[in-house]
Automatic annotation (TrEMBL), chains A, B:
Sorted UniProt keywords: Isoprene biosynthesis, Magnesium, Metal-binding, Transferase
GO terms (BP aspect): isoprenoid biosynthetic process
A single GO molecular function term of this UniProt record: metal ion binding
GO cellular component terms given for this protein: cytoplasm
Keyword Hydrolase listed: no
Pfam families documented for this protein: polyprenyl_synt (PF00348)
Protein name: Geranylgeranyl diphosphate synthase
Residue numbers spanned by region Disordered: 1-26
Listed cofactors: Mg(2+)
Biased composition (Polar residues): 1-12
Stated family: Belongs to the FPP/GGPP synthase family.
Length: 344, 344
């Protein structure tokens, strides 16, 4: 678990469980604590003038302002403080940014997609709060700050997650403007599916059950975990943005394929970096070699084939964007490129 | 914590925290385990022909069948098993029944309201699963069965609650038929508000913070806890049923008042029964006298005034129903009467 992997993981704050942390609950994972540095070389090749870093910075500012308004500091203050503590703890806001970008790509506005963008970050935050709990990953730090339950206690942390999850759906229904109600309902279904037992929760459960001595994980299972723990919410972000922006079936299908590819590619690249960096740093970061015992793409199909798979996925994702205005598609191209660049 | 209170509490499975259980986490609370017996004398005075027990039994059968379909036993099985274990563990299905009754009262059908009725039970179940967790009330039994985390472990129990909460909103959006989409969105907002930091979670937080030595709880705080922990979801059940059935503003307002009154009355009567029964059984059930230390309506305003408040609330609730067809309003009359009858 090394610096480059830590950066990459934090960018999307990947939800793969850290075996070493589970075996030694008191251990602080640098992967969870490391600050994100978006590298300057990550720019769209097709649009050299597009400044991905600047774009993401501006979007994060917009999204943070909207998130700040979404949870008012009202009675009973402690629960709203707890929700805000984790929701406003920073991060690159990749899921909201994807949602806004997809909405704009198909002709919609930022305003139409912003409530759903906030909702996606609420869900992501909920999953982190609950995943950090002592009975789950038992993490003490997240993004360099004490985890929610370390500050507010387990009871409040569980309830803060519940309140954020509930608010996420209420917020889409209550705050979305200038979108046909049936489309808003479609978005709620899309987001709900990405969270529940067919989404994020399903992926976490399979991951939990795949841990421990004597469990053999095949490529199918590994792909299931990745697709559900990481890719499902990314897919919901892109597809809901498209729906809110008025996309037809063809566009929704196309962008769904794009999002599935980048979601899976992200985890394949993450696996590659994990293995590479672990090898490089072996013996330097004590205890981290335990992570190698985890089934990964390289451990199943080898490093080279893993790189080929990642390349195929990225190319596949980008091929879904060729029919769009390159200026509007630039953020989505850049995100795919960003994932590829992480190989280096 | 005695037989009559146990029955009454289980009827709505009240969510007030049990101080004695918190002080002695290993103690099994009969209140949580007791089976419900709906007494035959609980019948609407205005409609003597209406058989409340039979009605509730038939509704529970319908609702249970719908709930059974709502969570299919698919991969990954363990999470769906865990969700189903608690969701299908029995209970009188009061919230779904209220939702269906309110929908029919204003001219709607059972079919229109059933997805939301199921959603309300999913939310109620989620709140019980999370409330029973070791870091919360640490209960080993619920409705006579081991609690979710005792069977599936804490990780799965937390995730099962999350998945049920997520599904509850998705289910309304996905499964509701023959209702205008904007009405379905209104229902989602109504339900969301009842769960989050302005609803159930808010009430639980204030309850948690009101426990422990040196904390003085006033009538305002007690009312806040009751209104949010118990009454909010009952209100959402009635109001969402009305919205789904096509109610106008006047009907929605009227039924909102009805639901607020019965929700608060339920807890006032619960407090009365708690005090009365504790006195009667004092010394018989070891350790239960600790519950007396909890702030209740009788401890704040006395037993007689508490009874008057309960009577006023029940009369107020019933006065909201006088403009409706007595046959259609019979279930809602009967529920109010049921709460009054619990005094005896």
């Amino acid at each position: 678990m090394q610096a480059s992997a830590a950066r990459s993981s934090s960018m999307l704050v990947t939800k793969r469980r850290c075996s070493s942390a589970r075996r030694n609950p008191q251990q602080v994972r640098p992967r969870c604590v490391a600050e994100v540095t978006v590298r300057s070389e990550v720019k769209s090749k097709s649009k050299p003038s597009f400044d991905f870093n600047q774009y993401m910075k501006e979007r994060a500012t917009l999204i943070d302002a909207a998130l700040d308004k979404s949870v008012p500091l009202q009675y009973p203050e402690v629960i709203n403080e707890s929700m805000r503590y984790s929701l406003l703890a920073g991060g690159k806001r990749v899921r909201p940014a994807l949602c806004l970008a997809a909405c704009e790509l198909v002709g919609g506005t930022i305003e139409q997609a912003m409530p759903t963008a906030c909702s996606l970050e609420m869900i992501h935050t909920m999953s982190l709060i609950h995943d950090d709990l002592p009975s789950m990953d038992n993490d003490d730090f997240r993004r360099g700050k004490p985890t929610n339950h370390k500050v507010y206690g387990e009871e409040i942390a569980i309830l803060a997650g519940d309140a954020l999850l509930s608010l996420s759906f209420e917020y889409i229904a209550r705050e979305t403007r200038d979108v046909a109600p049936e489309r808003v309902l479609q978005v709620i279904v899309e987001v709900g599916k990405a969270v529940g037992s067919e989404g994020l929760v399903g992926g976490q459960v399979v991951d939990i059950k795949s841990e421990g001595a004597g469990v053999t994980v095949g490529l199918d299972t590994l792909q299931y975990i990745h697709e559900h723990k990481t890719a499902a919410l990314l897919e919901a972000a892109v597809v809901s943005g498209a729906l809110l922006g008025g996309a037809g079936e063809v566009d929704v299908d196309r962008l769904r394929k794009y999002s599935r590819s980048i979601g899976l590619a992200f985890q394949v690249v993450d696996d590659i970096l994990d293995i590479t960096a672990t090898t490089e740093e072996l013996g330097k970061t004590a205890g981290k070699d335990l992570a190698v015992a985890k089934t990964t793409y390289p451990s199943l199909v080898g490093l080279e084939r893993s790189r080929e798979i990642a390349d195929e996925l990225i190319e596949g994702a980008k091929s879904m964007l060729t029919t769009y205005d390159p200026a509007k598609a630039a953020p989505l191209y850049a995100l795919a490129e960003y994932i590829r660049a992480r190989k280096n």
